[in-house]
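Lab notebook: predicted structure, single chain.

Context: the supervisor wants predicted structures on file for every construct in the current expression panel, including those that have not yet been purified. This is the next one on the list. No modifications to the sequence; it matches the entry in the shared construct table.
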Amino acid sequence: MRLLLMLLCVLLPPLGSAALVIQRVTVIDATGKPEQPDMTVVVEQDRIAAIGPSKSARAPSGSQVIDGRGKFLIPGLWDMHVHGASENRRTWSYPLYVANGVVGVRDMWGPSNATAWRVQHAAYSKPAPTLYLASPIIDGPKPAFPGSIVVASAAQGREAVDLYKAYGADFIKVLSRVPRDAYFAIADEARERGIPFAGHVPYSVTVAEASDAGQKSMEHLLGVALGTSAQEEALFAEEPQTYGDRARRDLRAFETYDVSKAQSLFARFVRNGTWQCPTLTVLRSISHLNDPEFVNDKRLKYIPRSLRTQWDPKTDERFSQMTTDDQSALRDVFRDDLKLVGTMYLAGVGILAGTDTMNPYCFPGFSLQDELALLVEAGLSPMAALQAATRNPARLMSQSDQRGTLEIGKMADLVLLDRDPLADIHNAGSIRAVVLRGKLLARAELDEMLSAAEVEAARLPISKVLAATIKEKDVAAAIQQYHDLRSTQPANYDFDAAELIGLGYGLLGAKRIADALEIFKLSVEVAPDYYNAYDSLAEAYMDHGDKELAIKNYRKSLELNPDNTNATEKLKLLEEP
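Prediction complete. Output recorded below exactly as produced.
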């Protein structure tokens, strides 16, 4: 203690006006130590410069001083499973993250060139979380999502690792349909190249094999229930095609739970350093899509209208065919998944807090608070839940010397709370202020950020306005209307290129190809750096029978996004002799 006091006396005087001083606060440093009441924390630039008892600390003249009496200071939170954070069109989500104390996210579908993205993102001047970037999704033949990188062989798996390592991805992301030989090639190449890999445990391997292969984190508990079942071999032979199929298979796994097998599997996870990111938030949302209260969440006011439409289970093709039996099975599995997470935690398995944000009813920022509560419901202590969003992410990212705990020398990403999160984890949402890389964002500023996000989300979809004009007049009038409204009412409508692309495909579906072409041309004009705008225009030219212009625009799309598999496949067809 005497040494700490001397350190404070040495550090405090020279900090000058750049210092931020939080006095008389209770520190919860996320190391696992008990709360430390009546402490003073000093931040200089973007680092924690000193921590010590308030009775001995002196704030230098000119410091920005915050009275922390009755308040609690924790490290900033991380959401370790999100989507879309690195998309230029998703910057509306940043205020929602930051206002909820989320200072960093792991984007599970990263940009094609992470290095180039970071250079571009460096010019973004508003508050934003730090991003830890995956490669683009790597999947097998018949991928689950368009735009995924398809690998069908070991050689292609190795090539994908090499490519995205060179492009600066923080880790390689694998999905469910990666073939067995390609998966082990990815694991081997990732180890050789010194880059982690994470994601789904593919259908082609067991969770024990994936852990032994070095997969850094496993998402959504995929395959874990099977790995604890006395009938694992028989269940593993199945490949579920729908959410309902997967739920019924997992229920059979839980019904044949083998305690000794589970203990052996969890010990393997601990030994191999395999993290589990259960994403309980999305598992809950999928299992409650037929709950009217759930799908009318008041936080929808912060979500853009176009995304709200996508989230509607009636329009999302993944969920629109779900039966009542499917939903019932999913809810039963969710109940058992909570118990599974608690059992793994007690066995010492590393747990990460992640939400799968951008999936239906998984809200940027807000849902990380939900995830903490679900982890406690699963059996984690409040401290362990906090560590799942602070210390554990830093460990997974090999950044424990920089982040994750509230200690001297670490990044000053902090959250000041009105109430004690260790008494009730829901208190992690009682945010008084956020310190983001050393900059204080007080409650008033956070509220302004949320208000601005709500206004932006309320913008009307321009596609509906233009569709009505096309019907009543013609496409030329609609295009003129777009320009007029964007000039005179920029805050009232969503002018995003995605709105135009959606309208264009509606016109294609109605066989109004000439009108669709004009709308797609407008989307290219509006978003000249957006690969999908050129891809969509090329498709319209194909339907119009204009091969040369289709090729030209597919090539431009590939120039902007070399991983656009749709453009690659279409060019092969168009350029065949």
